[in-house]
Amino acid sequence: MTKTRAVLAALFLALFTLVSAYGQSGRGTLAGSVADVLGGGLQGAKITLDPGGIVALSDSVGQFTLTGVASGDYTLTVSYAGFTDNSKKVTVGAGQVTRADVVLSIASNKQDVQVYAGRQGGEVEAINRTLTADNIINVLPADVIKSLPNANVADAIGRLPSVTLERDEGEGKYVQVRGTEPRLTNTTIDGVNIASAETVRQIKLDIIAADLVESVQINKTLQANMEGDGIGGSVDLRTKSAGDRPTVALESTGGYTSIMGGRPAYQFDGTLGKRFAEGKLGMLFGGSYDWNGRGINDVEPAPVALGGYDERDYQYYRQRLGFAGTVDYRFSETSNVYLKGLYSLFHNYGNRWDYNLGATFTPTGQPDANGSTSFGAEIRRPVQDIGSLQVGGRHVISRSLLAWDAESSVGRTKDNGYSDASFAPASTSNLNAIQFGLDNTNPLVPKLTTPQGVNIFDPKQYEYTGQRINNYYNPEVDLGFGGSLATSYTAAGHSGMFEVGGRFRNVHKFANQDTHYYVPTAASGSPTLSMTNFLGGFTDPNYYGNSYTFGPTVDYDKVTALTAQVENKKKAKLGNNFNFIEKVEAGYVMNTINLAKFRIVAGLRFENTSEDDAGNTAASSTVVSTTKGSYLDVLPSASVRYTLTPESGIRLVYGRGVSRPNFSDLVSFATVSPGGVRTLSSIGNPNLKAEHADNVDL
Questions:
Q1: Peptide bond into 51 cis (omega under 30)
Q2: CB 3.0 to 4.6 Å from 242: which of 147, 188, 282, 553, for a disulfide?
Q3: pLDDT at 21 over 60
Q4: The total number of structural domains that make up the chain
């Protein structure tokens, strides 16, 4: 901790020195906006001020600010791919703020559409932001996201190059950048880490509706002023803000699949925004709701000759409800504050029914008379949500830009009753010893067949044997704040920017999990246990294109309504419950300078991580003592960009990143599970080290 405090103290001393050193007269500020002919703000436009070669980029609503500009006459040039460059004369006065608003026209008068309209405008924005960024990025603006049927943010991100998805029941869930595992990809909202809804580091992005964000930016290389997490890359979700034009957007989409008797899908999105008080106050609010009915016919085979297969039906009805909004106030051209929020709720509900066909075989490969079958029903009702709230501001102080923010985020998973019920053949059933046959007529759909008079789908042959109920609650709460000071300067006629900053983040993650088992009080063979007492209305007569047969199913509510059952407390167990606190203190210095056609960015980031494991109650009811620890990471980065033409360039980038172990792996726990053949043991390791990678990109 002493080393970290010394580093942070040095950074803040440097910040104070810079404020004092650069608070001098003879310089002013140039602020303005870049828009198309319809008044739409253009994000990522390149603003160049000559002489001096001072460069800036327009923000998400087309605004820009150049600080520390020596008083005098200049030529302001704004360039944006797909539009004609616009140059104008400006005069900057000492100690004053000069306003310069620029309107760009499309580059060719032969085009039939307004470039900024719809998907075309989104593609142009992506090109410009990718071209002008100091690091290597890919961008997916809202116009492109909405032009395709993306139910969640992960599905949208999966369309970008070098990105693959880990999917859950057909929908994208985790993002993987450059082929690395999901844990090595970091996720932020407006540049700040957010809480995970699970016990892993990666963010489950199917929770967040696609329409809630202004854009998605994947940072393939890191800079000193960015969070140091993300060896594979960093996904930044950017929230919407009110532009100078009023915003009204209402959309609805729908779809239908014929599987399992028909499953619909529909989505409703809306965004409203406007600026008030002569443009000083901006308010924007958006919401999204979607219902996604999914059905899956699933034959899960072991090789037929080695044990049979499961016939499964999955019926999902997923609901997402999300809101996002921004309120900002511009005190002046060079000072503003904002409040941004995003919240998304995901009901990942579903049912599963499965018939389990088990066969045993003779040494010659033929089924013997010891085959068996069983039936299972499962419900899952996990509720997951992610929320983020951020307050901050940007203020020009002399020739410096001060940015600050404070934020809180939460991610949670709660499932009161991830449960399954088991049914087995009654003691008098002819399903206890089945002489299966093997049908390989179509080798792509091998099937087990039954002897004449044996019906494995007859519910009268099965009886209820018990259920398992799993309760789970896993929240994370993050609190943090940060600030930076970027000061412009001129060295030998070359413009540059020196930036210092720091950030603190407190992560509190804990998990509570327990599993309970219930068995019926009636003896085997009792009519009260017959599967016929629990039947539901769901059927699937066209299962797997009629290649297989699927039998009747169970209504799980009828299982839970059975009062004649008791808990088997000998099997009840606690999960790997834990209480974990992590604190990250970060500081950085970074310098940017333009040398003719070269733009050089170099920086150094320090991140000190402190961990406090408050102990763990494991499945064996073993309480492991608490542990504490800390470590310091030094993360250098540098990039060189050479401009070939105004619309092309080459970058060479180096960066060092860090990825910390999953929370569930770091906490101290020990479980021992005796088995028939072997005993399985698991142990948590609070001494796990963070991983590091040195990335070089051309």
A1: yes
A2: 282
A3: no
A4: 2
Residue 227 lies in a domain: no
Q: Does 293 reside within a domain? A: yes
Q: How many CA atoms lie less than 13 Å away from 685 in the CB half-sphere?
A: 7
End-to-end CA gap in the chain: 37
- The residue segments making up the domain with residue 624 are 247-697
Cα(582)–Cα(686) distance, integer angstroms: 12
Phi, psi of 354, deg, nearest 5: -145, 135
Are the C-beta atoms of residues 423 and 375 closer than 8 Å to each other? yes
Specify the pTM.
0.87
What amino acid is encoded at 105 in this protein? S
pLDDT in tens, 65-89: 888 888 889 999 999 888 889 999 9
- pLDDT for 468 equals 93
Q: Among 55, 79, 113, where does a domain finish?
A: 113
Q: Look at residue 23 in the predicted model and tell me its pLDDT.
A: 42
Question: Helices (DSSP H) in 519-647: which residue ranges?
Answer: 556-560
Task: Give residue-wise pLDDT tens across range 601-642.
Answer: 999 999 999 998 876 554 444 445 567 889 999 999 999 999
Looking at residue 317, which CATH number applies to its domain? 2.40.170
Give the angle subtended at the CA of 201 by the CAs of 200 and 206, to the nearest 5°: 80
CATH number of the domain residue 69 falls in = 2.60.40.10
Q: What is the mean pLDDT of residues 540-562?
A: 93
Q: Last residue of a domain, which of 93, 113, 133?
A: 113
- Which of 158, 291, 295 lies closest to 235 in space, CA to CA? 158
301-348 pLDDT, tens digit per residue, is: 877 766 789 999 999 999 999 999 999 999 998 999 999 999 999 999
